[in-house]
Amino acid sequence: MQDKNPDNNESRRRLIECAKREFLEKGFVKASLRKIASDAGLTTGAVYFFFSDKNGLLEGVVGEALGQLNAVIDQHFAEDIESDLAGYRQQDGDHDAFTEMLVNVIYDHYDEMTILLDRSAGSKYEDFVDVIINRLDSSYIGLAEKYAAVMPGRRVNKKMLHWLTHVQINAFVHMMQHEKDKESALHFIKPVMDMLIKAWMEYSLEDDV
Amino acid sequence: MQDKNPDNNESRRRLIECAKREFLEKGFVKASLRKIASDAGLTTGAVYFFFSDKNGLLEGVVGEALGQLNAVIDQHFAEDIESDLAGYRQQDGDHDAFTEMLVNVIYDHYDEMTILLDRSAGSKYEDFVDVIINRLDSSYIGLAEKYAAVMPGRRVNKKMLHWLTHVQINAFVHMMQHEKDKESALHFIKPVMDMLIKAWMEYSLEDDV
Amino acid sequence: MQDKNPDNNESRRRLIECAKREFLEKGFVKASLRKIASDAGLTTGAVYFFFSDKNGLLEGVVGEALGQLNAVIDQHFAEDIESDLAGYRQQDGDHDAFTEMLVNVIYDHYDEMTILLDRSAGSKYEDFVDVIINRLDSSYIGLAEKYAAVMPGRRVNKKMLHWLTHVQINAFVHMMQHEKDKESALHFIKPVMDMLIKAWMEYSLEDDV
Amino acid sequence: MQDKNPDNNESRRRLIECAKREFLEKGFVKASLRKIASDAGLTTGAVYFFFSDKNGLLEGVVGEALGQLNAVIDQHFAEDIESDLAGYRQQDGDHDAFTEMLVNVIYDHYDEMTILLDRSAGSKYEDFVDVIINRLDSSYIGLAEKYAAVMPGRRVNKKMLHWLTHVQINAFVHMMQHEKDKESALHFIKPVMDMLIKAWMEYSLEDDV
DNA sequence: TATGAATGAGATTTCATTCAT
DNA sequence: CATGAATGAAATCTCATTCAT
User: How far apart are CA C42 and CA C23, in angstroms?
Assistant: First the structure.
């Protein structure tokens, strides 16, 4: 079942707004649809007019943020795919741009991201972080494999790479929880990303047996 | 009210065993006492004979693991307090020993740690990771301050230090999720800890303004 | 949270009716929501649609009766405040009117009053009688103090006054339990009130020390 | 089933002591046997060794007080039965003695009386007050009938008499709740009893139709 | 476009009571 | 003389969901 159309509806907007607050406060499982509806001046039935179910409502809350985040990631890796080793070497600049775009998306949808990262247990998005990590992970492995191809005696250290991806994601989560505005966020995250790129260079390949 | 004594009781053991499985599978909030009791061949009332309530049951499941973990951490920092700068420099060895003890405790109580780390939302242990992080964090800051005292023009970079603590903890979580036995766990975690110690040396202090 | 609106709802009415019977029979604490709901042909959940909780349901049962009773008392004492000693002497007439209004309210809500007086232990109305007594008591003390002001060598005998207030309230309770219709109730209560007014005149003041 | 023997047992005494406290605090229905037993350093099972059930335990708590109270009342009315009209006229003295004995029994078993009067709802003693009232009532009616027999054109006003009995009992209840020691209790109750005897004289008979 | 009503299944918790040992 | 274990029934309450209107 497709949920009812977006925009243009005041009640739907109120529902989303109140759901956002409730999810933030209580988490997906403990959030109460009755409370959300009544906060919005509506009844629970109304929720089911606009959304398929509780998960659908969550989708209404985080959908756009999620879309934008995915778009940024898609675009980043679309470019990467075309980049050759030369491009790869210069990726600091790239990375900087990518980091800034991520920070933008994240801070433009701060509450939604917090819900996705920290309040979605029990919902269909509970694996959100894992999904992101998997996407990054396979891209990074692809990249590293190109790199390894020209480095005789070396091969991709997948476990370390996977962990570094985790650390990278967690760095953004950490950033969100500790820096409340974009500027200080960038001030924190840039050196961290630099550190990670260095680690990436140093540990992503290991000696062939 | 103190929960009933451990050991010697078959039903209590069964209850804990079944609770462990249920908590692992569904998480604290969604776990059903009814199911736990009936899996154990008992009634819900029986749970309340042995434990004070749902949180008490969780305590029954993770209590010992938690105690051992805390003991290891306590001991580590008790030693640190006596260590001076000299000791601090050589701490790699220390750290190796600490790491090994942690890995031992963790893998001796694999399921319990998983519950504490990942399935305890909504319970009295939901802040478990934060508590650990805070303990480590303040110890590390103390250590870094001693270090900074003899480094003119430098001061402790608390934010970076705090993040590195996070990364350290997350490394153990990551390890648990990806390495199923002690040996491969150590094989993974040791280089990671080395990497973190290097980062610690490099980033824990920043230039004074 | 405000309970759902009165009137117009058949199920709500049935719920209140069945709750009234159950409260009357078993008292608040031992009354079973399950039984009330099923007597009304509904499920327990339905109770929570119409009322906030068990106390809210009791409020639904006795609310109106309580409001009317309070209104009668309010009005009586609003008049008293304007009455001076002269008015006080003639208060028999007043008192007769007050007594009649009380009897009216009580017998128009016989079951509800019985619940409030005798079956509300454990509920938010368990202090109902005490509250009424306190209201009357402080009014009576005020009245007696005016009286004492013009009687040299005499002062208010608060303990006796307080007891007489108790006796007055208990007289109404007694009346309810023994007289089943308004007419015989008035026939019983009027001489009793006369007796109490005499006692009031005689015992409300004591010799100054 | 007869409850186990009294006296001489330390555990039984402790159980009674703790039950007394629990009943006082929570009332019969809400009192918890588990808590009583554990306060006494025993288990619930032990309660059932010494007492038949929850009511039996209450009996253990209030039994002796009840016995003494009944003895005082028995004795009072045993004397009355032999008293003729002459004796009846002088009964003030009698009444004073009776009042004093009641006050003695009540204040020697203050907690037990409080439980009987105010905390026994739901137990087999919940009608305690009614039972006492009925005993007094029928005695008083008998007395009044003797009196009426020699007063032509007058007959017993049973309703008024019954109410006065209520007032008398309630006076003792009131006394208990407001006067914490025997002396001030007597100071309060004596004038009240005098007042009631006057009312008794005046209102216990009414004109024959 | 929504409401209002209601369900039904579930949750945790509490309790008096029993009984083998 | 008492424990420790367990039952079974009940309690209040919460919730997502449905559906006629």
Answer: 17
